[in-house]
Amino acid sequence: MTYRVKLSIFEGPLDLLLYLVRKNEVDIFDIPIATITHQYLEYIGWMREMNLEVAGDFLIMAATLIEIKVRMLLPSTRDDGTEEEEEGGDLRQDLIRRLTEYQQYRDASRILEEQNQLERDVFLRGGIEQDASALDIEFKEASVFTLVEAFRRLLEKLDQQDALTIETSEMSIRDKMGELLEKLRHRGELRFEALFSSSPSRMEIVTCFLALLELMRLRLIKVYQAVSQGIIRIILAVKNDERTPFIH
Question: Which end of the chain is more exposed for a tag (fewer CB within 10 A), N or C?
């Protein structure tokens, strides 16, 4: 049986839209609907490919984006040329309003979370291995969609003959979670490239991806990405002397 993770546990459709807006460096009040819709549908395809269970609200948002795109492309059927433009424009403005409100909510939540993390001092200090060249690099907490894209790039490098549906079991996911936690307990931090063997298989990549998501859900790890260079680092989110759930 194929093991799947519900993405709605971590992120929702508005999170994906915000990620795409920032990735494309566009104004949230002037979103290029055609470009964003195309990329949004691509991400849904990639998420399904990596055994993520795409919730219905992602599909509803996809339908909304497509409808806005179609209404913006089609000419008006009314003589005064206003009905289709206004209705399509209303949908677009409503989406922008929802997106800006959600962005404000997420930004406020992130600030509170960062303050709580500083107060709890949950991150390891002495055990983290850092390259001298990385000391001045600014890191920010990575979105789940950042991981989706990083793993997608790995999958695209595989031979087409290996591009088959992979059935990952819950046991193999648990085993990988335990392996990653053990490495992090010893090293404190792992770079993204260190997660895999020199020639990883498709199953190894997907299993590792799902294991990371489960560890994120359990708040046992944090994933950060360099703002300018794209380096991804996985950090143990609890101190070594704190007990963590036993992974079977």
Answer: N
